[in-house]
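[09:14] KT: can someone run the structure on this one? pasting the chain below
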Amino acid sequence: MKTATWGTHHALSLVVIATAMSVGAFAPSASYGQTSKSVVPVNAEPDHHIRFENGKVRMYEVMLPKGKSTMMHEHRADNFQVFFNDSKVTVEPKGGLPATFPVRAGFVAFSSTGLGTYTHRVEGAGDTPFRVIAIELLSAFSATAGTASVERPSPPFNVALRNPKGRAYRVGLDPGESTKTFTRPANTAIFAISSGRISEQAEGKAPKQWEFNSGNFRWSETPAILSLKNESSTRVELVEVEIF
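[09:31] RB: done, structure tokens below
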């Protein structure tokens, strides 16, 4: 896909998940019996389903019911992760102890390969399926310092994560509620955490409706000045990830 597309806190524990994903921070131990020969690159792991790719980013979706495990797989690129269900996940770094953590819908994490690739496997451990979409960064971006420094008005935009590679917001709107006008920079991924419907009012354009279910997303290739309005009868929850 080459163009913008509509697609189909336990804070401490979740930070530990991101750390475990990125650095394998557990003591060595016997794993589930898989050998190093079984390690596959992430793009060959059968539970990592590619949902979007445009040469800049590649998005993988993983959904694991309780007891379902991925293969041991290697990540070679930095990536953001957006979680969609309140659930539990077991993370096993290669050569390390598996550990189980709670996850919350709408949480955003980041895993760095700045110190090298990392290898792990994950297993669904909750009664609700573990569901995540990872945004793998395939190329360097060229956001200006000004773009990276401008944050959106809070509320309803609440910064969930920021680092030199990007910034993520959690957005919650009650029925009929609108945001103030804000700037959405180029190279932004918008994820639906809940189901619902919003309208986007961009400068000089007719409103655009988006009806979505949890896990739907879009990629915004160009910058826009706009506002959002919840057109649903229930609260909507979104996550927007700006890639720098």
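[09:33] KT: thanks! The first strand starts at residue 5 and ends at 7.
[09:34] RB: yep, looked fine to me
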